Amino acid sequence: MKMGKKAILVALTAVTTVAMTAAALAQGGGGRRPNPDQTAASFRQALMTVISGTAVPLLLMQRGRVPYSAATVTKNARNLVTLAGMIPDAFEHDTSSATGIKTMALPVVWQNHDEFLMTAGELRTRAEALEKAARGGSEDDVKSAIMNVGAVCNQCHMKFRQSPPGEGGGGGGGR
Ligand code: HEC
Prior knowledge:
This protein is mainly alpha-helical. It has two domains: 1-33; 36-160, Four Helix Bundle (Hemerythrin (Met), subunit A) (Up-down Bundle), CATH 1.20.120. It has seven helices and no strands. It binds heme C. Heme C binds at residues 41, 44-45, 48-49, 51-52, 55, 87, 103-105, 109, 116, 119-120, 123, 149, 152-153, 156-157, 160-161, 173-175.
């Protein structure tokens, strides 16, 4: 009885060791290690891409380019609240002195981090106001709440993001 249990334990330990070794090999043995600066930059850019994909339909609605839909506004505003809440973590890793990575984030993101975080918080607050407007407000209320959201995209890009080549200012937020 006792020996049986012990034998099982030994076997389990062996299996676990093999599994852990395999995982370690899979991580370390595949050639180049991922560059943590590029990983951080890619992550925050992916977040911005999703934020943009969520906000742009609303900005088009605000401009009358697509039909108004309160249901879409409610859903996208709620998603924007969550996505805006992810900005602080996504920009925690300071890449201001990293070289050879693809990024448009200016060093001032980390030099003036409190203001950056406040601007991210402002996006969240305005997305919350938009969600509220979409539930109870008039179409005009909703449209001005969408404008407020778009304005904070631009505000942050003007200060914290390099302007894309050929564009004068903060890049319209949507692109
Ligand atoms: C708190 C600041 C801040 C706010 C608010 C913000 N952005 Fe950004 N955004 C940035 C920074 C910084 C970058 C550059 C990231 C990089 O290249 O590493 C960026 C990049 C982008 C990009 C390019 C992503 C890529 O693939 O390179 C898009 C698109 C974008 N933002 C859209 C938006 C939209 C739309 C909003 C508003 C709904 C918004 N952003 C709100 C700071 C902000």
